[in-house]
Amino acid sequence: MYGLREKFAYFECLDCGCLQIVDIPESLDKYYPNNYYSFKGGNRSNPVSKIISLLGREQKRYSLFGQGILGRFVNLKSNYPEGELLRKLGIREDWKILDIGCGAGSWLFSLRELGFAHLYGVDPFIDADINEGSVNIQKRTIRELKKSQKFNLIRSHHSFEHMPDQYETLVKIHELLAPDGLCTIAMPVKTETIWGRYGTNWVQIDAPRHL
Questions:
Q1: Domains of the chain in sequence order
Q2: Of 76, 118, 125, the residue nearest 96 (C-alpha)
Q3: 94-114 residue pLDDT tens
């Protein structure tokens, strides 16, 4: 992505087909520079950005709660599968939500615009903590959170594949979930169709960030 021209070896599990890096770099920080896409906050000062923000907010409102004519029309053009999933799971504005690997927190801030009041995030690669109203993001991993904290929803949206300690992370997620809490994990899945077409040029290998 950043033209470093480094090479990394991956191997494929013959049982499940999972593609994995052979050697995890000693330090991953250098592969998350300040211009990494998830660290960028939205610029809503110009009219175009404001319109895009409005359409995105209304699309989320419709996908999450089935409300709003404008959001319904936007959704017809480009649907929001995650929102539809969370609606089926019964998401509510009073839920305590944790976003793992949230970057600058764009998803959390979009929920704040819809009235969500308990929004938390963790990301070890951001420059510093972010605390703005109901959005609280800490520069750390989920494993550093106190087990006394409980969440109704823990979300790992294309961050799980970046973690070297995946088993321990799952254990920690279970520890932090409220008794009726939910966890959603989204990550790229290698298929033979994808591999046959793109091979090592498949963008979702994203070496070496995707472990």
A1: 10-205 (3.40.50)
A2: 118
A3: 999 999 999 999 999 999 999
